[in-house]
Design goal:
The complex is a heterodimer of chains A (342) and B (263). Chain A has helices at residues 2-28, 135-142, 238-242, and strands at 37-48, 51-58, 62-65, 69-74, 82-93, 96-102, 114-121, 128-134, 146-147, 158-166, 181-191, 214-221, 228-234, 251-252, 255-256, 259-264, 271-283, 289-297, 307-314, 317-322, 337-338. Chain A is mainly beta and 342 residues long. Chain A has two domains: 51-191, Jelly Rolls; 214-338, no CATH class. In chain A, the strands form five sheets. A five-stranded antiparallel sheet of chain A has the order 2-5-10-7-8. In chain A, strands 3-4-11-6-9 form a five-stranded antiparallel sheet. Chain A has a four-stranded antiparallel sheet with strand order 13-12-19-20, with no helix packed on it. In chain A, a hairpin with a 6-residue loop joins strand 7 (114-121) and strand 8. Chain A is elongated and about 110 Å long. Chain B has one domain (5-262). Chain B is globular, with a radius of gyration of 20 Å. In chain B, the strands form two sheets. Chain B has a six-stranded antiparallel sheet. In chain B, strands 8-5-10 form a three-stranded antiparallel sheet. Classes of the chains: A mainly beta (342), B alpha+beta (263).
Chain lengths: 342, 263
């Protein structure tokens, strides 16, 4: 500290000596400021990063559109057709989660098309299967948006998405021959930093799926010359709750399980006195009753009247089975009635 | 805090003409009074202000005074703990080239009066200045943002100065002083808001030591926080800002040196 003290003394002497000079300077130098001062200036810069996902479509039937969308168009499909489309993603800038979304399923044909979607990080041939099944189901899953992998795609990395599709030649698909198919995939990239992967890069689509299970069954008899309606069972939530006096346990919306039920006259809960014994039910992939077999019993459980017509509402269609389609001179259907194919 | 009316009167009477001329020469030979104190010639004349700083980025230590590896913010800047002060930053403090929505950072700046004489108190004024707000081109997602103006050009055409949220405060409260966080006992300097808004509001400079000047050897902690909100979106992709934070120490009775310098 001796240095410091010595310095202080000398400073004081200096300042005392110059005092007069300084005063004069300050008075004469009007408009100039020369206070003791020091400035510390910190220079800084901040720059935001980039994140950009590019897509290329490899294959004849897909095209990239704006906003990360890829539209697939398959014209004039015939049973037995198949193909492969490939999408190459290139990520620029910061690491990103890659999400895949799609348009909602909206065509019956989509149920007949089988697809498999695979993901290949780096496009090096190491393929992970991500989705497979009927296109209808895959689109339903994708419409809300799904994160493609649990790993972030890094800047300058590529990934390949492959869509393999086929139109298997199965019974019932003839009705779709010659139809064309269009659907859209949507890709989105969202930063990984501060994001555990739960934030969506695009809004989830909510799809309204058309019911295609059975919604009612009409049973007709031919005791007279002309067919006459014997009774009608509604497969709806409203029927069991609206008709508590009837035996309806096992009936739901587009759904019924094998068992014996009261056969109402119509929608008004009036019992015919007969029972409908559902012997077999086939569910579709949505868990709905697609087709069923039944017989009619009387109040004692013995065979009821012969049936000569059955009307089943399956999806949007009313399927009518006449005597020649049913077991001859019988109180039961011959096999299941309902959805044409599933 | 040291208050010596005689000395102040003398110096005020002097103006700075003599003091500056002799002062810089005299101080050159002075030994650092603290072991962690580095002294060097300042590039401005007259009194001296030495600095210490501590930077965090997304909550993690980023950099401290001229490359110091001390990761405890309070040790770096709290005057009671003999921090390392340097007379000047040797380079930019905050230099981040890849910030993303959700990012945030803070800088605690420790200031200490190193007066020309051993008893000269100093007033410290602060002025932030935005020197650039650049667009740096467009990415495809950026162009799809409806708020993006493709026709804007020049070094003020960017969107980051409006997107960044900043605040300045005297980090000297009884609770959590020199810790880089704003507590109730700290005092805000200027408004909170976007960098553009806050920097505009403080463009003429503001007195930091409004509750008393710094005596020689006295320190003061100042905080700067910034955040790029998570909901910012693609508008700011690759945009950049450059900005200065200037601290000017003047004699205690001086008026605003920033406005005077420009008058």
């Amino acid at each position: 500290m001796s240095d410091r003290r010595r310095l202080a003394v000398s400073r004081r002497e200096v300042l005392g000596a110059v005092g007069t000079i300084g005063s004069v300077g300050a008075l004469s130098g009007a408009g100039t400021f020369a206070y003791l001062s020091d400035e510390e200036r910190f220079e800084n810069s901040l720059q935001a990063g980039a994140l950009d996902l590019e897509m290329d479509c490899v294959g004849g039937d897909c095209t990239t559109t704006g906003d990360g969308e890829i539209t697939f168009e398959f014209p004039d499909l015939e049973p037995g057709d198949s193909g492969t489309e490939e999408i190459v993603l290139t990520q620029t800038g910061n690491p990103a989660w890659i999400w895949l979304g799609s348009t909602c399923p909206d065509e019956a044909l989509e149920r007949a098309i089988q697809v498999e979607v695979t993901y290949d990080r780096d496009c090096d041939g190491t393929v992970e299967k991500r989705f497979d099944g009927p296109l209808f189901e895959v689109l339903l899953d994708l419409a809300t948006g799904v994160k493609l992998t649990d790993q972030c795609l890094l800047g300058e990395e590529t990934a390949c998405i492959t869509l393999d599709w086929s139109f298997p030649n199965e019974p019932g698909v003839e009705q779709y021959a010659g139809e064309s198919l269009t659907f859209t995939f949507q890709f989105g990239a969202i930063q990984c930093r501060h994001n555990d992967g739960s934030v969506r890069p695009f809004a989830a689509r909510e799809c309204t799926v058309e019911r295609r299970g059975i919604s009612f069954i009409e049973v007709w008899t031919c005791t007279d010359a002309e067919p006459a309606l014997l009774g009608k069972v509604e497969l709806s939530e409203a029927y069991p709750s609206g008709c508590p006096a009837l035996n309806t346990a096992g009936i739901g919306e587009n759904w019924i399980e094998p068992g014996i039920y009261d056969l109402p006259v119509d929608d008004d809960c009036e019992d015919t006195g007969y029972d409908i014994h559902v012997t077999d039910v086939t569910l579709n992939p949505d868990g709905e009753a697609a087709s069923l077999a039944f017989e009619i019993l009387d109040e004692n459980g013995d065979p009821g009247p012969d049936i000569c017509r059955v009307v089943v509402k399956s999806g949007r269609e009313e399927l009518v089975y006449d005597a020649e389609d049913l077991a001859p001179q019988s109180n039961s259907t011959e096999g299941e009635v309902g959805g044409a194919w599933l | 805090m040291t208050r010596t009316y005689n000395r102040r009167t003398v110096l005020a009477g002097l103006g700075a003409v003599g003091a500056v001329a002799f002062g810089s020469q005299a101080v050159r030979g002075r030994e650092p009074p603290y072991t962690h104190f580095t002294y060097a010639q300042s590039d401005t004349e007259g009194g001296r202000l030495s600095v210490a700083w501590y930077e965090t980025y997304n909550g993690d230590f980023q950099e401290a005074t001229n490359g110091s590896t001390e990761t405890n913010a309070t040790i770096v800047t709290d005057p009671d703990l003999d921090p390392l002060y340097v007379p000047q930053a040797t380079g930019p403090i905050v230099t981040l080239g890849n910030i993303l929505p959700g990012d945030s950072g803070s800088v605690i700046i420790g200031l200490r009066a190193e007066a020309l004489s051993d008893e000269q108190p100093m007033a410290v004024w602060f002025r932030p200045a935005l020197s650039g707000n650049a667009e740096n081109g467009f990415t495809e997602p950026e162009l799809k943002d409806p708020a993006e103006d493709e026709t804007a050009t020049g070094d003020q055409a960017g969107d980051l100065a409006d997107a960044l949220q900043v605040d300045f405060f005297n980090d000297d409260g009884i609770i959590g002083g020199c810790d880089g966080q704003f507590w109730l006992t700290d005092t805000r300097v200027g408004p909170e808001g976007s960098m553009q808004t806050v920097f505009d509001a403080l463009s003429e400079g503001v007195l930091l030591t409004d509750d008393g000047c710094l005596g020689v050897g006295e320190g003061h902690c100042f905080g700067f926080n910034w955040a790029l909100p998570a909901q910012t979106g693609n508008l700011v992709q690759t945009d950049s800002v450059t900005f200065d934070l200037a601290f000017r120490a003047v004699t205690c009775e001086s008026t605003n040196p920033f406005t005077e310098a420009e008058s």
